[in-house]
Design goal:
This protein is mainly α and about 250 residues long. It has two domains: about 180 residues, no CATH class; about 55 residues. The protein has 14 helices and no strands. The longest helix is centred in the middle third of the chain and has 32 residues. The relative contact order is 0.13. Keywords: Cell membrane, Membrane, Transmembrane, Transmembrane helix, Transport. It is found in: Cell membrane. InterPro entries: Brnchd-chn_aa_trnsp_permease.
């Protein structure tokens, strides 16, 4: 390949790369609008409640990357909790990832070096995008797109953490209510999941499970209780649908 063809080849690769990233950016726009203000809220809390340098907030977003978990960690560290207590609390809070992360192991199979990051970077919002977007027949291409989606989402969170920490150190303002961005983001993602799946049963089941947990459980256990309840109901629903789709004949029962 001569120099002119080589230049043309690399120019075409760069154009394809830019087009792919533009597509990923459009897909992740709802996450951008949720993660930036929420990450900023975390950064402000981090800088105003803990005696750490501002850059530790975005570093936490890089190494831990757990939105609600990071906010919980700040609250616990601010009242003098030990690292073991913080670690246990964050594990319990993020244990929900065990329930839906297993469903993506088959999709991540064969992803090579990307697989570890895809597992690490799996958040509620990223899971929603990965499971609701349309996919083509090229498995490896789709895994590369999954990787970019995950990386874009984490970059939004890290930038938000940095902005919030800098603001918390240098600007005095009332940040009450900014954490509602997480609720708004979940509403948008729920609507996207409904448009993709056209099934209201999981949505109503989740809402009912949350209501039951709030009525019968103390605040510290409501999240895990709601997750456990909705998981049991959805598994039973899936089993019923599978049984009705593949009925067992009398000969098979005997």
């Amino acid at each position: 390949m001569d120099s002119s063809n080589r230049i043309l080849y690399h120019a075409m690769l760069y154009k394809v790369w830019m087009l792919m990233n533009q597509s990923v950016f459009r897909l992740t726009l709802p996450i951008l609008f949720g993660y930036l203000p929420l990450g900023t809220a975390f950064g402000v809390l981090f800088a105003t409640q803990l005696d750490y340098p501002w850059w530790a907030a975005p570093l936490m977003g890089v190494l831990i990357y757990a939105g609600a978990g990071q906010i919980l960690a700040v609250s616990l560290l601010a009242v003098g909790a030990g690292l073991v207590e913080v670690a246990v609390a964050m594990f319990v809070l993020n244990a929900r990832h065990l329930f839906y992360g297993l469903s993506l192991l088959g999709r991540f199979r064969g992803a090579g070096w990307r697989k570890a990051y895809l597992i690490f970077g799996l958040t509620d919002e990223t899971y929603s995008l990965l499971t609701s977007r349309s996919r083509g027949p090229d498995r490896h291409h789709e895994q590369r797109v999954d990787f970019r989606i995950t990386a874009f989402n984490q970059s939004y969170w890290v930038v938000g953490c940095a902005i919030g920490a800098l603001l918390g150190e240098n600007v005095m303002f009332d940040s009450r209510g900014i954490e509602f961005a997480l609720v708004a983001l979940f509403i948008v993602l729920t609507l996207e999941q409904y448009h993709a799946l056209k099934d209201l049963f999981p949505i109503w089941t989740g809402a009912a499970a949350a209501g039951v947990a709030m009525l019968v459980l103390p605040p510290a256990h409501q999240l895990i209780g709601a997750i456990a309840l909705v998981t049991v109901v959805l598994l039973a629903h899936y089993h019923r649908l599978r049984t009705s789709a593949n009925p067992v004949s009398p000969e098979q029962r005997s």
